[in-house]
Amino acid sequence: MSTDLLSALADLIGPAHVLTGTDMAPYAFDWRQREESHPVAVLRPGSTAEVAAIVRLCAEARVPIVPQGGNTGLVGGTIAEKGTGAVLLNLGRLNRIRTLDATDYTMIAEAGCVLADIQAAAQAADRYFPLSLGAEGTCMLGGNLSSNAGGILTLRYGNARDLVLGLEVVLPDGRVWNGLRTLRKDNSGYDLKHLFLGAEGTLGIITAASVKLFPRPRQVETALVAVPSPAAAVALLGLARTGTGDSLSAFELMPRFAFDGSREILGRDQDPLSAPSPWYVLLEASSGMAGPALRGQVEAVLETALDQGLVTDAIFADSMEQQRKLWLIRESLPEIGRKIGGAVHTDVSVPVSRIPDFLAATIAAVTAYMPGIRPYPFGHAGDGNIHFNIGRPVDMEGAAYLAHAHAISDIVHEQVLAHGGSISAEHGIGNHKAEELARIKNPVELDLMRKMKAMLDPDGIMNPGKVLVR
Amino acid sequence: MSTDLLSALADLIGPAHVLTGTDMAPYAFDWRQREESHPVAVLRPGSTAEVAAIVRLCAEARVPIVPQGGNTGLVGGTIAEKGTGAVLLNLGRLNRIRTLDATDYTMIAEAGCVLADIQAAAQAADRYFPLSLGAEGTCMLGGNLSSNAGGILTLRYGNARDLVLGLEVVLPDGRVWNGLRTLRKDNSGYDLKHLFLGAEGTLGIITAASVKLFPRPRQVETALVAVPSPAAAVALLGLARTGTGDSLSAFELMPRFAFDGSREILGRDQDPLSAPSPWYVLLEASSGMAGPALRGQVEAVLETALDQGLVTDAIFADSMEQQRKLWLIRESLPEIGRKIGGAVHTDVSVPVSRIPDFLAATIAAVTAYMPGIRPYPFGHAGDGNIHFNIGRPVDMEGAAYLAHAHAISDIVHEQVLAHGGSISAEHGIGNHKAEELARIKNPVELDLMRKMKAMLDPDGIMNPGKVLVR
Description:
2 copies of one chain form a homodimer. Chain A has helices at 3-13, 48-60, 115-124, 141-146, 154-157, 193-196, 230-243, 256-266, 293-307, 320-332, 336-339, 355-369, 398-402, 405-418, 434-440, 443-456, and strands spanning 18-19, 41-43, 65-68, 87-90, 97-101, 106-110, 127-128, 164-170, 176-179, 205-212, 214-215, 219-227, 248-255, 279-287, 313-316, 343-344, 348-349, 374-375, 378-380, 385-387, 390-391. Chain A is built from 16 helices and 21 strands. Chain A is globular, with a radius of gyration of 23 Å. In chain A, a hairpin with a 5-residue loop joins strand 8 (164-170) and strand 9. At the A-B interface, strand 9, strand 11, helix 7 and helix 16 of A face strand 9, strand 11, helix 7 and helix 16 of B.
């Protein structure tokens, strides 16, 4: 990068916000520690106009730009790859909530707002912003939208893109598209926002969004349920959707191995249920109405399920503290890999009705590949999103096992495709899965994606190598 | 059109499905009778492969194609304009429901399926497809999706695009994009389906879609409510969303003029409420749970609203017959224009919180333009979609009044834009609003739309003159 450009950038956003030394460290790293990040500079603009001006300068100089929010992504989407001469454009200073209209149930917030701050602002207005995920204390709205984040409440409220009414985007040529509408119905032309949502910063930089708010849940019922099989879990899901008037907000499946693993991690000796079970469901229903009605509905669902043999045991959380305790089981599951000293992690989805077949086939396939392997698929079964994770055999070294990581995730992905699924459910493609995407994606779709990229970013300066291989 | 091409088309799909004479009449007309349609032929293919082959032949010969479903659109979107040499491609024979998976809550249906048939198929599987609009007995899925139809349940279930998980599209070059996934979470690349949804056939032809199903409502509460003002109605909406646990499915606002008009049309002498009111709300809440809980919730909302002066009177429907009777009031409103011998119709939206200001300002503006004019704005206030319709002054001839139609709708649209709204909420752009769109749309957005069109349809053969002016 030329010193002329660097000084032009410093003039533009202030020298304090152009980092080129060791001060880049808080931005130039990979959350999963799988890769190194080597930006030539980290830029921290303070406004949309500054973002636009940076993009114009970089576009002229053909300097690649890697947009970044909270940098909590899991697929290398915010890595500045060595030798590319890319700058990291961190949106963290664009952190204002511009408007919140409680009557309209909408909010306009900037890309650098931390998700938890957005949730809190909604709550302060007696409203609810339902995007919720593990990284919510650190991740930022722009990243959530650019990666179309999922999380635990997708079943009820949809993915991140479903919560968006409008966007402000800096295009790869530095123009600003102000599409910050707060309309529930608008059929005046092509819906362009969905192009940028989930594009991982490869088509432009989301600088702000207008999002939907919802009535605040006043009653939440959480239950841990023992089920004999994934098929029973899927049947229970159908009962629960109908029997709660579609108030079901979360439905997490986990096998015994994961359940036991979480108990170890959490240091809980006692099994909360009366007897071991091969599978468990953590389910939650929520309602904007306070009162005992919802509990009655969930209880009725579970009684029916018990009669039908779909459920063998269940406990309810009777306080917020108990709810928290149940959720900790689920939240500890990503730690199991470290705990057992070696696991392959995946993020896949299949149609809900195919979960049982997919699990059976994939458990069989990875076990055939390596006897003694320990699959523990868990996740958001309510929307078909399974983190099909697989631990090393007890008698194999972690490093030796992880040498098979690619082969094992290929086996999982092969089964995903055979069951009509997706190799990326909620984490995105980043640079980790870009080559695989190019290999497996429907050629017509891939061609359309490439044309879209070439049209919006002909010089390929926006987050190069992510989503689409160069 | 050359006779060679015609005979090639007849060889392709069978001569019985290539119409060129008076047998074109059932397809070559405008639902609103505002325009004439002059296709050189009407083509009725029987499969996606036939659609693709037609498009390839027409693309080679540069023959424009106007796709058509049930032909119930209101903005001239399926008109073959005179002199363009366009063919009408009617999708009516692609009318199979390919799959219905009740466990997965999904269905894959072809573009020519009549909406009511899709609703019935869902119901037969104890599921629910919530798209519902006046034309549902005639309109077809492909048209619903191409125009991103709204309707009365948008408040609860979203617009047509929100119900779609995947699409099959014939592209302008005749390639078929098979994007018929049934996944709730899929972050494997750009989300292309939203480009074709709402594009009114200008970017390709939707031939099939995978759609979301929902639990079937088992309890529906319908109430007609007298409110003193639009501001009271918007406040009631907030109470009702919260107080029913977000079970509110419809929230229709209408002024006294429209209410009285509907009573005349329906021949109902008796006012169902005890005293006249300046404004009315027809609201509906629905739940997948049978039982008295929902009625209690709606009653509690209305009692609170009564205490707060937001509501002056209300009646509940106590049977399905009474529900039907209340809905007939709303459904008769589009007839008022004919009844009073001259009205200007619009389809606009504003943010929900701005409805009261928008209504007041627009009533004042049209009245300033023409004293004695009779505005009767009504519609889906729950999602900000108002049909701001305006009747002729009693002492003016209908024809003389309608000479002002453009000027009057321009005044309405000016107020819409001043209130952050859209000139097309649910009907689309078609050819009626294409020139206006080119005039008022944000230039960056318009430029992106044009680039998208040029990229996908470089020869401009797909529904020319619709959405984007030539």
